[in-house]
Structure formats: C-alpha cells, structure tokens
Amino acid sequence: MATALPAISSSSSSYCPQSWPDLPDELLQLIFLRLSHIQDLLAFSSVCRYWRSFATSFISTSPTSLFPPLLICPLIRFHPRRRRQLPVSSLKLLDPSMPHPNKLLLDSYNTSPVKESILSLNFLSSSHGHLLFLSLRRRQILILNFITGHQIISPVVPLPVDFDSFFQKNKEFDWSSERRLAQLTAPVSSPNCTLIFLAQKHLLLWKINSTDWSSHPLQVSLPYLRQMVVVGRKIWVLECGERLSILELPQDLSSKVVFSVVRWPVWEWDNGRIFEDPRLVDCEGEMLCVCVTSIDAPINMTDHVRTKICRFDISADKKRVVQIKSLGNRAIFLSAVLKVPGCVCNDPEKWGGKSNCIYYATNGKKKWVEMEAGVFAPEKLFKHSNRSTCSFPFWDFPSILQ
C-alpha cells in the first residue's frame, strides 16, 4: 500500500501531500463502512497505528454487529498405515461472510500462527480472540492470540495441598476429561482483564500482567465441568447432569467468592429426549440456554430435532426460566467444542448471514450447518459435536472485534 495520498483542498487548483494518518475521520469512516469481511478489517488496521486505533474505537460502539465470528478449524491428519489421528498441526480460519462458505481467509490470515508444539498442550477454551492452553510440565497457562500469535504466559499455577494430584494422569484425575475450565473476563487489552481457572474445588484468578494468582477454595466440589461463561462479575458453570452453579467475583480479588447452586431447569420442559448437551450463551448481558431436542416432533419427523432456547432470570427473588421463541435479528454460533462458549451476532444480514438462525460447527465436510431457531431439521447434522479438545472446530471473534 502506498505511503502517501494526494488530498483535494477547497481550491481545485491546489494539492498537498497528505499521509495516511492525516486523513480526516469522516473519510476513514466512509472507508470503514465499506469493509465487507474481517480480512478487510485486518488489512485496514495494519495500515498504521492511527487507523487501528480508529477501527478499535469504532468497533467498540457495536462489536457484534459488524462481522461474524471466525471458525477455527484444526488441520486433521491421519497416520498413513495405522489409520489413527495424529496431533493437530495447525489451525485454519474460516469466515462465514465470504461468498463461498468454506473459502479461507486471505493468504496472510488463513492459517493461525499458533505453533504445533502449543496445540499439543491441554486445550482449556477460547476467549476474547485468544486460545487458552495448560502446560502440565510448566504448570502455566498460555494465552495466545489466534490471529497474531502473540503469547501471554501466566505465573506458575499455585498448588494447594490437594491440588498436586490434579496434574497426575491417572483414572481419578484425568486432565483429558472435563475437570478444568478457563475464561477471560474481558479482552486482554482491558486494564481489568482477569484469567479465571476453575478445577473442581479450586477457583484461581490471575489479573493479566500481575505477578501472582489469587486462590479461592470452593465449599462445593465441581467434579465434572462442562461449560463456563463469564457475564460481568458472575461466572456461570454448567456441570454434567442437572446442576448450574453461579459464582460471583469479588470487587477485590483477595475477597471471598460468593457461591450459589440452582437446579438445572431445562430438563423439566418435557419428557422428550435431549439430543445435544445444553449450551450457555451470553447475549448482551443476558444468559441464554440452547439445546437441541426431539420434543414435540411430528410422527413423520421422528429422526428430526429442533432447538429450544430459554433465558435465565435471576433478578427476582424466585429464579425462573423464560422460553424464547425467536432470536429476532440475531444469530447464535455454537462450537463443536463444548467448553467454548457460544457467540451472538447482531444484524447478521449485514454480512450475508441469516437472522433467527443458529450456526452449528461440525467436524464433517461441511464445517457448519445453519438451523433456524425452533424449526425441525435432520438429527444426523449434529453427530459431530460436544467434543472437548481443539481437534474440533469452534467459533470466536478475533480480538480486534472486542
């Protein structure tokens, strides 16, 4: 890209050289509004620091209305003779706003720079455009930007008296199972960004760029963790079974964490079959639950399923669940990796998407399926989901959109 651009002044006969950072904000806004894909945004932001700052400030007004999340797809390889899957070697990035659904991003962005050695670590989750990995050998958590490859390494995880056994690979404490989760409370650029690490009875908090963890032992053990979503200072934890736990972060990390347990109400909707594990989704501060079920399927559609969506209302004295029939002008993106929270995108029709639609990531030839909320679809579309490793595709917004 050129380094200078001629600018037209009020006099038609006079021209003066003008650098890219000196372009007026009105012109930058016109250029920005014409960006149609995330790769255009990345190119725009790479021109100079001022353009990146302009893009960041403009995005902050409506971060989920401009572009959809990216689908992070692992490159799966198989042993040529033994027919077994080899470790993930790289991650591909897919953009659902592209004209062709499975078309990769531009050459400079179509492959995440995350190294193969890191992908072999224990995958905890994806949060705010960063992948979270646990190194058992170093006992540290790695926070990686999947676009730039920039790394943040936590201090050594503190070890309570009974925490040492968590790092032993035996039947009782198996790190490949759902016994640990992690999330960021905010984008890493935020001054209050905190890394949350949850493992059974231990909740550990690390404020980014600080030197120490703060430990918060829980009175109740959470042995089989499914999903964790952070909304404000509340941590919603979904366990295997019918229990939903809510933890409230203290203002001061040295204070005590407030813990409460509520009964999981989704299973009480009907006596029908729940085909998929429920998913928690943060929708602009409200907690939604999405599950795929065969409840109320017509006789001629016994092999079909549909989505049911509810909203948790915990503001009143009596906690209740409100069923939602339509998403309106929104779309939800659910990953094939259960521990990665769902994403919400407003006004998806701006980039060619569908409103009132749920985008399910799958591990098949078609990397995702689109399902209208509340409408029945063949259940075979959902056979490759609910996984717990980064060997399966998952959605996340790049950090520049947060």
From TrEMBL:
What's one Pfam family here? Beta-prop_KIB1-4
Q: Domain (F-box): give its ranges.
A: 23-64
Q: Tell me which InterPro entries the record gives.
A: F-box-like_dom_sf, F-box_dom, KIB1-4_b-propeller
Residue stretches spanning the membrane: none
Return the SUPFAM superfamilies for the record.
F-box domain
SMART domains, per the entry: FBOX
Q: Which PANTHER family match?
A: OS06G0113600 PROTEIN
Return the protein name.
Answer: F-box-like protein
Organism, per UniProt? Carex littledalei
